[in-house]
Amino acid sequence: xxxxxxxxxxxxxxxxxxxxxxxxxxxxxxxxxxxxxxxxxxxxxxxxxxxxxxxxxxxxxxxxxxxxxxxxxxxxxxxxxxxxxxxxxxxxxxxxxxxxxxxxxxxxxxxxxxxxxxxxxxxxxxxxxxxxxxxxxxxxxxxxxxxxxxxxxxxxxxxxxxxxxxxxxxxxxxxxxxx
Length: 179
Fold this sequence. Notes:
This protein has helices spanning 14-22, 36-47, 104-117, 134-142, 165-178, and strands at 4-7, 52-59, 62-70, 87-93, 124-127, 146-152, 157-164. By secondary structure, it is α+β, with helices and mostly antiparallel strands. The relative contact order is 0.14.
């Protein structure tokens, strides 16, 4: 699968994001009860913040998933671990669908990681999913993430995990060979 990316437009994309984020499948995003205005506001804040970014992943020009990335020295993980130069934090969301495509979410996380590592300044990707989100832990492991430890964030208990460029390339090369 081939994906492209475009910057998220907080106003034009709000209805789409609202549908995605309030669906029960997106429970780990903790926006189940969000109103459209809440989604607009949240993504306007991201758009105005130099340390956070939101992109839509497109498949054949159609929005297919959400990607967020951030500087962990300034957002999300401040004081919870010691960031290294080249660290970037990441979130992604694949929306619920009536017709799931086998391998889609794995293709998405692979594309998200490849997009992040296109930046030569990125040395390591950091994630902090909920400890109970076993599905995303398996996906993270498939692309090279190694869990370090559980951390307590204000909104959840999270599994702090890291993936270097080398770990990502090794994991995705192994996947390409085994398919």
